[in-house]
Design a protein that fits this description.
mainly alpha; 9 helices
């Protein structure tokens, strides 16, 4: 006769799965803070646990190592960023160029409002190893897909898909360096001016993307 599994105990009305999820969230938040301030390479498991207010054993309950946590932080940040950009695009007038301006505005505004996001996406994810870099590349493709679907409507109908995607890649790449320069205070301009500059980049590259190669 098989003995049934004992019920998982709840504490203060909170089940085990909820407690695990809450501890995982604390670690992701700690990772975002420490990886983007003192850097991934300088952050150890004990540092993360101290920041999260947890013991080491709870780290390994959710993550095999720091790298796995870094990927989780990246996924959480990019998911939230994409959600906010899509919200901005949906709330804008569904005409050109209003929708495109709202999308670029939302992207740059989010990256300047919380500089940790820019550092995570453009710096920390690229100095670890090839697995992490490839994960970052795959994540950035979601932004490329979003831009490509948007600019497709502004290009001639016979524009090849490859040209549309190359234009979208150019938009993302051309905005990255001004954003990084602003983040590291290499250029001293207000965030609003940076946003306006990135909107101009978008417009110029979309126009160029519609020209015959």
């Amino acid at each position: 006769m098989t003995t049934p599994n004992p019920p998982v105990r709840a504490y203060a009305g909170v089940g085990a799965s909820e407690r695990i999820a809450a501890r995982r969230t604390k670690l992701v938040e700690a990772g975002l803070k420490l990886f983007t301030t003192q850097g991934y390479m300088a952050t150890g498991v004990k540092d993360l646990c101290r920041e999260a207010g947890l013991t080491d054993r709870y780290f390994y309950e959710s993550f095999a190592n720091r790298e796995e946590l870094l990927l989780a932080v990246f996924d959480a940040v990019t998911e939230q960023l994409l959600h906010r950009i899509r919200q901005a695009a949906a709330a804008a007038p569904q005409t050109s160029p209003e929708r495109e301006v709202a999308t670029v505005d939302a992207l740059v505004r989010e990256l300047t409002a919380d500089p940790r996001t820019a550092r995570l996406l453009f710096v920390e994810m690229h100095g670890v190893n090839n697995v992490v870099r490839q994960h970052a590349r795959a994540g950035i493709q979601h932004f490329v897909d979003l831009v490509a679907s948007m600019i497709r409507e502004n290009l001639p109908p016979d524009t090849p898909d490859t040209q549309v995607r190359m234009t979208a890649l150019s938009v993302i790449g051309a905005m990255e360096q001004p954003l990084l320069a602003w983040h590291f205070k290499e250029v001293d301009i207000p965030a609003e001016r940076l946003i306006a500059h990135c909107v101009q980049i978008f417009d110029a590259l979309v126009r160029a993307g519609g020209s015959p190669a």
